[in-house]
Amino acid sequence: MLDDVVTRVLPAGGAAVPGSGHGPGAVPRWNGAGHRPASPRAGANGVIFLASLIFSGLALAGAIAAILAVFPGPWTLGLGRLPWLASDQALFGLALDPLSCLMLVVITLCGFLVVLYSGGYMSLGNVEHPSDANLARYYFFVCLFITAMVGLVSSPNYFQLFLFWELTTLCSWGLISFYGDAEALKSAYKALLITHGAGLFLAAAVVLIYVETGSFAFDAINLLTPGLKSLVIAFMGIAALAKAAQFPFFTWLPTAMAAPTPASSYLHAAAMVKAGIYLLARLALSVDAFPPELGLALSVIAIVTMCLAVVLYFPQDDLKRLLAFSTIANLGYMVLGIAMGAMGSRTALEGGMLHLVGHSFTKSLLFLAVGAISYATGTRKIGLLSGLGRKMPVTALAFVLGAMAISGMPPFNMFWSKYLIVSGAIELSSTWGWTLAVLTLAESVAGFAWFLHIVHKVFFGPVSPTAENARDPGAAMLIPLIVLMAFSVLSTVFALPMIQQSFGG
């Protein structure tokens, strides 16, 4: 009974078997009775999918309930401490303020949508990856990642933040290596080496704060001597920049596209890379006087990352790798906004955080649209795709709207964040500020031009042989696309007031 329900209703149960060859353009094959053959794992996979969907739904509902109950806060709940550490403060607990509430919305909503989408994508009907094996491991790491991110952004101090920081690194390794081929394993270990290696600097910073102040509290950093404070901020900056895939650490992110596309959407658009941005934002909130020379250094790193990433758009023939370099560039916008905030522009700081929210929803939309394309055609190669707009109209609309949003076109969410960042650069009233404004606008124009080219190539023109049998996926994959399209326009409405609450607007 359960197998039949799962096979007919839940794509996670492995509802379709690809045609012979499993190559680009392959289509599901039907048996003589007119039904798709059921997977022997259908029942177990259906239960796993439903359990994961319920878990992520409860996480979303819990986050919304907590925000409605305590916003704008601050609100703290201590849950325990370690007896061998001489501290009266709870080391474990929950702490909510406008910044953590904002992050909870992004983390739990995107997490729920990714789990729902995975119910269709991780199946035998996926022409690119026709398999429904090892889904327990996949959903375990996705749900653990949601948990780790919730724990990270609701941490009351640096001690708990560091523990969940490292847990996100572990989850990223588990998901990038999921398919188990040589490329996936190499990419996973590369990401682990870079992000965990840089995470050791965060560990050193946390230890220094505790040794010098006897506290792990976020504001304990202000008790340090000026020289030691700068060192601790620099150490945390290294960890954050590696996690956020900024120069020179960015090389792990493009290769991490070996992960299943829904996992790429979550890890590299809405969650893991945003942990680095969150740490920088938390520093900006906690430090009484952010050293301006460190703000200047961050701005240089950010603008170099943005310019390098946009240049690397052009040789890409893989849609996911293109989105990876777009992610790197847009993370640069966020770092730039925070850096200019340290240099005195609150407008830029608010723009950087608004960019975090807009990018999370918009880039998730683009990744999931690309997932729908590879699910239906078996390829992500730009050179093999043409005319998909006629075959996959909803997917095409999702990608086109996502491309417009990521390029900063009005009225989409990322127009407003880019506007604030550029305005903040001009607000600095310096040669460097104007330089940042010009380079930011140039990156945005170049990115828009290239995405326009990609949209025309992939979705218009004659239908390529690879796209001939393509069609929009089922409801489990389309519903997240529709929701994310809406949030690509509307997220500014709730995000900007929360950001202004965070930074005293």
Automatic annotation (TrEMBL):
The keyword ATP-binding does not apply. One of its GO terms (molecular function) is oxidoreductase activity. It is found in: Cell membrane; Membrane. The chain crosses the membrane at residues 46-71, 91-117, 138-155, 161-179, 191-211, 231-253, 265-284, 296-315, 322-344, 364-382, 394-412, 432-455, 476-499. GO terms for cellular component: plasma membrane. Its EC number is 1.6.99.5. Pfam families: Proton_antipo_M, Proton_antipo_N. Residues 155-439 form the NADH:quinone oxidoreductase/Mrp antiporter transmembrane domain. Keywords: Cell membrane, Membrane, Oxidoreductase, Transmembrane, Transmembrane helix. Residues 89-139 form the NADH-Ubiquinone oxidoreductase (complex I) chain 5 N-terminal domain. The keyword Membrane applies. It is an enzyme of class 1 (oxidoreductase). It is a multi-pass membrane protein. This is NADH dehydrogenase (Quinone).
